[in-house]
Amino acid sequence: MNPQLIGGIGVCGLFLLLLIRVPVRASLMLVGFLGNVALNGSSAALATLGTVPFDTASLYGLSIIPLFILTGSIASGTGLSAELKAARVILSGVRGGVSLATIGASACFGAVCGSSIATAATMTRIALREMRSAGYGDALSTGSIAAGGSLGILFPPSIILVIYGAIAEQSVPKRFAAGLIPGLVLTALYMIVALIRSGSRSSSSS
Predict the structure, then answer these.
(1) What is the pTM of this model?
(2) Three-class HEC string of the chain
(3) Are 71 and 137 members of one domain?
């Protein structure tokens, strides 16, 4: 059977499973396994099923996540996250100042760890409580953290860019240089959206 046809059937089957509320992980595993059987045979599919989960779970990008969650817990438990309160003083005349500080801190933390998942997990532990105590709604709080967490994939040392450079046999430093400017621009755009969102919420509440 044509591989393109198998891929199309797999995508349609995946959407069908999701529509009937089959769990995402089960849907992906089932479609991937059956597609592998159709393409490479049952022996190769079973071999892949036995090795890929371990290889994925042992990736460096996933292994650092618990350590950065621990860092966030330490920062939250020891009161380091209260430093975000300084944003209320520094940006006291700006609506959404703590949201801006959260996005900026996420960009800086992403430049340290290189992982969007670790950045989002850590900033959730650090910033969410402070934003709620400052009176921010859950939509703006979680949106700021989720948007800021996505910046970790762009700023060096981005783990994804390292993996891409290795697979594509491209220069990793050039990939880092290419991601820096878009990361800064995206950070600025996220802050602008947070300002607009904060202003619109305050106007509607008044």
Answers:
(1) 0.57
(2) CCHHHHHHHHHHHHHHHHHCCCCHHHHHHHHHHHHHHHHHCHHHHHHHHHHHHHHHHCCHHHHCHHHHHHHHHHHHHCCHHHHHHHHHHHCCCCCCHHHHHHHHHHHHHHHHHCCHHHHHHHHHHHHHHHHHHCCCCHHHHHHHHHHHHHHHHCCCCCHHHHHHHHHHCCCHHHHHHHHHHHHHHHHHHHHHHHHHHHHHHHHHHC
(3) yes
